[in-house]
Amino acid sequence: MQRLGFTRSSYLRDHLLLTADTFVRAPRPGMQGATAIVHVSPAVGAGFTEYTAEFEAGGSLGPAAGQRFLYVLEGEIRLEGKLLGPGEYAYLTEGYDLPIAAQDRARAVVIEKPYRALDGVKLPSMFVGDERRVEEKPLMDDRDLQVRVLMPDHPSFDFAVNTMTYQPGAALPMVEIHVMEHGLMMLAGGGIYRLGDNWYPVTAGDFIWMAPFCPQWFGALGKTPAKYLIYKDWNR
Ligand code: UGY
Ligand code: MN
Q: What torsion, rounded to 10 degrees, do the Cα atoms 34, 40, 45, 47 define?
């Protein structure tokens, strides 16, 4: 559809909103039968890379730029003989080089980050998980805003990935301003995201990057819950 130059996508110094109409697909080195929509990378000053990988049947990923976290959106991904379906995820250590391939067509969010070791702290190990088995915890006692922490709470890990689910009308209790940066994929529903001094309508399929100290707030709108997958640098 001709949109006469209009888009909700926006790129400012401390945040980036990318909507599906502006996605550009290109393979990452080593991908076979797969392509990537790179949402954020060190090219904008981020400390990590996040992309959506779109696989054809049998398609596979190439080597990672550091550690890798993979969250399946659609279809099934095979890894070490296990099949990961929607809501399942894997954390892979730096240098992990076993095949990661799709059964049929599939889509996954992939986060890659060079590892920052801490003196005296043991290196992390790879693991797989299932979001549905992770206990929900209310954010600051708000039962309408539930958080699931997908990575172990241990200093070996230098980043965190959570899902946050907002009932319609639920909102972050404060405007957050913090040193951590975020990569955020809207998985369901929508609402209004405040980023810096701008308020954006956002919906499932949108991606947001927030630089360190970017003022941020979200309120869920509509009749179904809003949910996002959110990365932050952590423990360093
Ligand atoms: O974990 C976080 O910093 C989270 N509450 N931020 C956000 O949802 N924008
Ligand atoms: Mn935050």
A: -70
Please provide the average confidence, as pLDDT, over all residues in the chain: 97
In this prediction, residue 1 carries a pLDDT of: 66
To test ligand 1's pocket by mutation, which of 164, 185, 200, 228 has the most ligand atoms within 8 angstroms of CB? 164
Q: Which is nearest to 193 in space by CA: 25, 9, 52, 20? A: 9
Rounded distance from Cα 216 to ligand 2 centre (Å): 7
- What's the pLDDT tens digit per position in 138-165? 999 999 999 999 999 999 999 999 999 9
pLDDT band at 228 (very low <50, low <70, confident <90, very high): very high
Closest CA to 85 of 131, 127, 116: 131
Q: Which two tokens stand for residue 140?
A: 């600051």
Rounded distance, CA 236 to CA 233, Å? 7
What's the CA gap between 74 and 152, in Å, rounded? 24
Sequence-distant (6+) residues with CB within 8 A of 223 are 168
